[in-house]
Write a structure and sequence with these properties.
2 copies of one chain form a homodimer.
Chain A (H helix, E strand, L loop, with lengths): L2 H12 L9 E5 L2 E11 H4 L6 H17 L4 E11 L5 H14 L3 E9 L4 E10 L15 E5 L4 H6 L6 H5 L5 H10 L3 E4 L4 H12 L2 E4 L12 H10 L6 E5 L11 E8 L4 E3 L2 E2 L10
Organism (chains A, B): Methanoculleus taiwanensis
Family (chains A, B): Belongs to the thiamine-monophosphate kinase family.
Protein name (chains A, B): Thiamine-monophosphate kinase
């Protein structure tokens, strides 16, 4: 069983709409609040050798990335920290606070707990004008599909390509890009933390339409043989780039470095250079 | 080292004001948003024999209790669930959803993860008009100090008094009471999840004044010998009652069952029937 199977069960309890996006969307005043929570822990999320500062930074960055994926601006982050060793706390908090400060959020509070395994849950809050909110659902056949930045770098680092280690350990959430894309009129968006392929299938599920991507267009990690680089770009996890759709004439959006990798199709399948793309990437399994 | 020592270190990074209350307070529009996060996990928080439904209920209840302590109304809860066994998820989500529904909040989303030990982090959001917000700081010498409901029931259940088991396993956050007390003009408030004694010392730290309580006035758990009942009421954890201060003439507040247990004093000490109260209760330790 994987986490997407489980999500289907959760939908039976709390409803389908609550689980479709990177963030919950809560109307408040004339605006939308967005809220998201992410659990990270030592054995599955923090690669060996990571510093406390990097652990704190990453814990906040993954949450801010979800806020970016809605076209929203972050306001506050709460951090619940289950500590195996209390000596680790200070550097974790410094990394978390630095990530908040870099992206304009306030580290507003949290919870401390003793835990056998270092476990961090960061919760992010943001806000966005209703007309600038971008959801996963909204893609239209004929739109192009595009991606910010470079694909596969985090997984490349895990495979031993040391030049990509910073991309793995200190991910940079695409907040500026997400906000700009929301204002420009992107039609659908999500981040690709579980890999491009799984994310495209999530987009199929949300939209009921499909995607035809051209693997020659994928922005590949530098210094990796091309075949391996393409595999990492399609199926590697740990990248926090934004996958989005929009009318072709919308691009380029000023200040957003993005690559068109394909187009939205009517049929709900994912094709990579004409062949059905394998639905494989990073998943929690039990 | 305990969690209150650690909190002092965190304050050096993120600031003192961010850690003083049960919730973070975030101005938004003309209102205050309040936000709080709580980590619970199997070995320290879920007594043996607890059902999945009760685990889900409790995980939400502890968070809603923090919202109640600010005089705020809950709006949404996010649940990050680290599962040892995926079969546990459905009943946990049902309990969580039932607790949300009971108290007027929406279970708006969350995160799923595989974890060696069942670990749940619930994050609650609420809102309150600025004039009805109650903080831990605000107590004034001469105010009375009072408590909702009954003390020591959860700890009594842990000590084997089965008649209090529901209080332990299915805590009822005092939302109606918190909102009514905020509107009525309570001057300071917090919930007492780590026990009355520790909470009074937290109030001393926030307020710079002290408390003189009369142990004969404590609302004790039924069916427990008096000496033991008083110990449980002072130092037992797991109760989610509201401890608050207000001018004496404010009480009774309609629809709020509360007991005056003492008064606020100028000197920053906690006295129980004239003797300094031991600073002891539920604390996470490493």
């Amino acid at each position: 069983m994987d986490d997407r199977d489980l999500l289907t069960r959760v939908q039976a309890v709390i409803g389908h709409a609550q689980t479709l996006d990177d963030c919950a969307v809560l109307p408040h005043g004339g605006e939308y609040l967005v809220a998201t929570t992410d659990m990270l822990h030592e054995t599955t999320d923090f690669p060996c050798g990571m510093t406390g500062w990097q652990i704190g930074w990453m814990s906040v960055a993954v949450t801010l990335s979800d806020i970016a994926a809605m076209g929203a601006s972050p306001t506050a982050v709460l951090l619940a920290v289950g500590l195996d060793d209390p000596e680790r706390l200070l550097s974790i908090m410094e990394g978390a606070n630095d990530c908040c400060t870099t992206y304009g959020a306030e580290l507003a509070g949290g919870d401390l707990d003793a835990h056998r395994e270092l476990t961090i849950v960061s919760t992010g809050l943001g806000h966005v004008a209703p007309e600038h909110l971008v959801r996963r659902k909204g893609a239209r056949p004929g739109d192009v599909v595009a991606i910010t930045g470079t694909l596969g770098e985090a997984q490349a680092a895990l495979e031993g390509y040391g030049q990509h280690r910073q991309a793995l350990l200190e991910p940079q959430p695409r907040l500026r890009e997400g906000i700009a894309l929301g204002r420009a009129g992107a039609t659908a968006m999500m981040d690709i933390s579980d890999g491009l392929a799984l994310s495209l299938y999530d987009m199929v599920a949300a939209n009921g339409c499909g995607f035809a991507i051209d693997t020659d267009r994928l922005p590949l990690p530098a210094g990796v043989p091309e075949g391996e680089a393409r595999e990492l770009a399609l199926h590697g996890g740990g990248d926090f780039e934004l996958l989005f759709t929009c009318p072709k004439e919308l691009l380029p959006v000023p200040d957003v470095e993005a690559t068109i990798i394909g187009r939205v199709t009517a049929e709900p399948v994912v094709l990579a250079s004409g062949r059905v793309l394998e639905r494989r990437g990073y998943q929690h399994r039990w």
